[in-house]
Amino acid sequence: MAREIFAIAEHRDGEVRPETMELLAFGRGLAEAMGARLTGVILACPAQKLARQLAAQAGTDVLAIESKPLAVYNAEAYIAALAKIISERKPAYVLVSHTATGWDFAARLAVALQGSCSTGITGFRKADPICFLRPICNGKILAEVAPLPGTVSVLSIMPGAANPVAAKRKGRVEISHFDLRDPGTKNLGYAKAGRGAMELGKAEVIVAAGRGIGEQDKLDLVRRLAECFDKGALAASRPIIDAGWLPLERQVGQTGQTVHPRLYIACGISGALQHIAGMSGSELILAINTDRDANIFNIAHIGIVQNLHQFLPVLIQKICARKTPRPSNS
Amino acid sequence: MRILVCVKAVPETESSFRVNASGDFYEEAGLKFRVNEYDLCAMEEAVRVKEKLGAGKITVVSVGPKRVEEQLKKAMSLGGGYGVRIDDSAAPARDALSVASLLAAWAAPQKFELILCGVMSEDLQRCQVGPMLASLLNYPCATTVVSFQISEDRGKIFCERELEQGAREKVELPVPALLTIQTGINIPRYASLSNVLRVKKMEIPALPAAELGPTRSCETLLRAYVPERSKKCEFLEGDAASVADRLLEKIRSRVKVL
Fold first, then answer.
1. For the domain that residue A246 is a member of, what is the CATH number?
2. Fewest C-beta atoms under 10 Å: which of A119, A179, A330, B196?
């Protein structure tokens, strides 16, 4: 019988997460390469509606596990339920999204299963054994890793590693009811961080600052460039938000916002994978950085290796020579 | 409260990286190392917990060769009382479970009440060692923690975890527990001169990894290489004025935003 691949779905507030569709697309590619069967696994309570939604959207058969402690995400309940179903069905691979939720349970699930664990995977290479690709050092080096032979392998897949495709058929749904103990750790619910309106989604041009700008007062230069565009907005990568230089609602990336402007100007941004996950869909990407090896140049369309503090004033002056800047809402 | 902070020495991400002679990891020679940023935030949280409770003992541990002592001391200079290095020259390229096994074998008898790790290391970004250590010690665990409070009876921890798109998840854990700390939770303080001098003089005990018993493993590292650069990026070279002119021309021809 063909081996099975499990892809574990994520859901919140009654909706399957978009990262799950990418995960299933990756799983489909892997299943085709190794002649295996892909099954989407969803843990929920109630489970039926979500399981049907997943089976219809992804076009894969879905195994749903229903149990009271699975009503909201809970790592301990997830690990207990998954360990049980995995030991019964013995899939070759268990795919998890490399997201905050995936980080929370994937490694612990692997330990519980005495299995292999490879995280942050962006691709695979068909070989014997199949090996998996993990970018390290901010994408400057690519490592190839393989699971330990004879073990079930938990893999966490980077968001954006595969593009979802439209479902060709509706998958079948199978629901199992598990009796799970109440976990010691409790999920007390969800909250939304930051009150600011998510303005970035409406911007035509996003000018984003990264660690490479150096000092806080240099942010002004980046802001002035954003103000040169009619529908321009100032944004930033994580280090700028962490330093408190800009509020959270300005953050682009996996833990911030996903944006698709017509023009994205990355100023002093190295191109951490978490940042790229939030902006790689931009129509035209311009990167300005002094590090020619920076990963951002792997996804940029136009690259400029210049010192921002010298280059931006020249650029701003040339744009403004043709028009009067308008104050931005930042 | 007995607090453990796990720290890792990582190369500066802005460095230029090469592959090592055995072709399976990055070459260390020529790289500058610093404390993993996430771990520094974890260290700062440990110091804040101790300050708030008015008592406590902070131990800092790192697994690695002699050179990691510098980063271990750097983290300790924020306010750590004790430091231990698990001496292992193979550590940088080890898989996460074998690192977690070493940490667990050393930490288990010490009965820490709170263990803080960074969410991930900046060089490998696996997000595995912290949660695996929790599993091996049978501690509850919360990851990507952006704020937490300890209950008055010190029996529970309330955390907020950071999820995607600005969402937060609230979690309650019983003590002892392990948390992985997300950057942005604090801005780590500058070490005081007295702390820097105190730590500088300290002898850091080195525990040979081999004495910690057998380790488990979770993957095999096959090879590492410098990926081919994407060819889609067109670099504009020259002086600032001419680059700016050509850039504006390109922007105008491709997207109508000016």
1. 3.40.50.1220
2. A179
Structure token pair of residue A201: 């989604």
- Cβ contacts of A89 within 8 Å, gap of 6 or more: A4, A6
Count of CB atoms situated within 10 Å of the CB of A114: 12
Q: Are residues A11 and A137 in the same domain?
A: yes
- pLDDT for A131-184, tens place per residue? 999 999 999 999 999 999 999 999 999 998 999 988 888 899 999 999 999 999
A89: nearest Cα among A210, A201, A213, A1: A1
Closest approach of B134 to chain A, Cα-based (Å): 8
Q: Is A284 on the interface with B (CB under 8 A)?
A: yes
ipTM: 0.95
pTM: 0.93
B183, closest residue in chain A (CA to CA)? A242
Burial of B197 (0-12, 13-18, 19+ CB in 10 A): exposed
Q: Report if residue A252 sits inside a domain.
A: yes
Q: By residue range, what is the domain housing residue A155?
A: 4-177
Which residues of A, range 25-54, sit inside 8 Å of B by Cβ? none
The answer as to whether A327 is a domain residue is no
For residue B206, how many other CB atoms are within 10 A of its CB? 14
**Does A320 contact chain B (CB < 8 Å)?**
no
Structural Rg of chain A based on CA atoms: 22
Question: For residue A251, which amino acid is it?
Answer: Q
Total tally of structural domains belonging to chain A? 2
**Cα dihedral value A93, B213, B124, A251, nearest 10:** 90
Instruction: Name the amino acid, one letter, at B54.
Output: G
